[in-house]
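dumping this here so i dont lose it
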């Protein structure tokens, strides 16, 4: 099905140009696979075309799904709802991307064939501590309607069983469904509500007080600390510095987040880009944070300066060349060295290649083969050694989903190089959900992923180890817990709170998890 007529689409998808919209179609045209068979996008950037590897994966997952569904006497659609169906998708990924090499994902074909075995593995990991500090939902008065159509797409495609035959409304991207997809449809235990802002403020996903209100609602209901929230800081905006003190007092944010690009949602409106090492603009802000840390010792996360970086491929650079210098990590090292009492958490790990065409994981793989690096992730990984700092962190939001979909060897390399350069204790978990659906499939991808031996040898990287080993435990939850001061005692309380109770009831009543990304795709692949 094509998208709606241009005039309607411009209302629903105002963040893409009419020329870009003409190249898109709904993702319901894709095959119903647990792992998407083609690169998808939100309405903030263009998706890439289906790669040869994705076409091969689609053929393989169709075949293995048909065979194993028949063996288990169920439809292929129902088979792909099971833990065995998810395992089958990872088998197909290995067959596609690791034909003549070590597998990318640790998956036993027996899991796909034996549903009880697959479910036993899933049950054995469901209590693993997962702390996702990069999540989103939309506010009640949002003018953004594109995500509604995305969810309708997913339901029609059958990717997310919970959406099949269900009319979608803007409410599906709001707080109640956010709670369901994060806490019931995935193994996530704790999450942070993030946000974005625009010079045209109606396009800001949430205001700072809305994030606070949602955090308080969940934590009050659960009786424990399930939810954290950011406040967005806006350098250059009138009165922005005064708001820091005011909101630290009234909203009590757990950390602060900013966009050096100035306005990522509407790049053509960006009036206030900034550099982290700008001593005139940013250093007074850092001084305010250090004072706030002393004033509010119950909020140790105030030392975390969360910064959107990357997602700026050459195709986007061509339209906004003046913003390039604000999107890479050239400003991170000096700021981190000058402010060792703060942590600089680089969202998206500054990965450049997420958008397309002309910016995909396939482009990143090609660059890696030619140059031995991936923009600007490799640069980020080298900052600790170049500047002698230990306060720079890499967040995996958005990039882990997109690189796994299109070229998992890129995802493996990026994890490996960041672990090597920054330490396994400096890579932190974020998914950017809800935009990519419930985050369970991303959790499962990290649990199963291993850096192929040839990539380890070529780039001097170490293996990550098993799903519940120290490296993956650190990335999925322990690192975020440490930098936000979420103690083992607080984690233990979660096992018996109301959210845990709701999730047990939900699972007992047969609630299906949504392990899928969704959105828009280019016409004709």
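and the seq i came up w/
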């Amino acid at each position: 099905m094509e998208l709606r007529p241009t005039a309607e689409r411009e209302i629903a998808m105002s963040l893409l140009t009419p020329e870009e919209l003409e190249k898109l179609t709904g993702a319901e045209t894709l095959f119903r696979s647990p792992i998407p068979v083609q690169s998808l996008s939100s309405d903030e950037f263009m998706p890439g075309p289906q790669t040869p590897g994705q076409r091969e994966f689609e053929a393989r997952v169709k075949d293995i799904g048909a065979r194993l569904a028949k063996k288990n006497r169920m439809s292929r659609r129902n088979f792909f709802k099971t833990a065995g169906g998810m395992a089958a998708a990872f088998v197909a990924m290995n067959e596609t991307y690791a034909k003549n090499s070590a597998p990318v994902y640790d998956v036993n074909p027996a899991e796909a064939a034996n549903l009880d075995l697959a479910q036993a593995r899933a049950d054995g990991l469901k209590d693993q501590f997962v702390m996702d500090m990069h999540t989103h939902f939309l506010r009640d008065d949002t003018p953004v309607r594109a995500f509604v159509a995305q969810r309708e797409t997913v339901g029609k495609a059958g990717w997310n069983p919970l959406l099949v035959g269900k009319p979608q409304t803007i409410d599906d991207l709001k707080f109640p469904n956010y709670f369901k997809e994060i806490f019931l449809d995935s193994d996530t235990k704790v999450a942070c509500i993030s946000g974005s802002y625009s010079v045209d403020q109606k396009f800001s996903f949430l205001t700072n007080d809305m994030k606070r209100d949602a955090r308080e609602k969940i934590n009050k209901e659960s009786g424990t600390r399930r939810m954290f929230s950011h406040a967005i800081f806006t350098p250059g905006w009138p009165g922005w510095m005064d708001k820091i003190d005011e909101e630290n007092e009234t909203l009590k944010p757990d950390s602060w987040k900013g966009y050096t690009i100035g306005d990522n949602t509407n790049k053509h409106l960006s009036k206030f880009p900034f550099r982290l090492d700008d001593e005139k603009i940013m250093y007074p802000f850092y001084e305010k944070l250090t004072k706030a840390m002393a004033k509010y010792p119950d909020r140790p996360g105030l030392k975390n300066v969360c910064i959107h970086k990357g997602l700026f491929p050459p195709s986007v650079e061509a339209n906004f060349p003046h913003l390039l210098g604000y999107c890479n990590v050239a400003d991170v090292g000096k700021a981190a060295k000058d402010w060792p009492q703060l942590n600089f958490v680089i969202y998206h790990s500054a990965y450049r290649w997420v958008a397309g065409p002309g910016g995909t994981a396939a482009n990143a793989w090609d660059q890696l083969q030619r140059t031995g690096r991936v923009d600007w992730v490799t640069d980020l990984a080298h900052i600790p050694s170049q500047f002698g700092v230990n306060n720079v962190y890499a967040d995996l939001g958005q990039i882990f989903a997109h690189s796994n979909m299109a070229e998992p060897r890129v995802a493996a390399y990026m994890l490996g190089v960041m672990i090597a350069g920054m330490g396994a204790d400096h890579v932190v978990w974020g998914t950017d959900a809800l935009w990519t659906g419930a985050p369970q499939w991303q959790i499962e991808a990290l649990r199963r992923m291993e850096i192929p031996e040839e990539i380890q040898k070529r780039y001097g990287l170490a293996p990550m180890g098993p799903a519940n080993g120290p490296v993956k435990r650190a990335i999925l939850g322990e690192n975020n817990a440490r930098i936000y001061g979420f103690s083992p005692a607080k984690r233990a309380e979660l096992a018996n709170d109301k959210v845990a109770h709701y999730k047990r009831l939900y699972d007992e009543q047969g609630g299906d998890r949504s392990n899928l990304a969704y959105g828009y795709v280019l016409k004709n692949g």
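The first strand starts at residue 24 and ends at 26.
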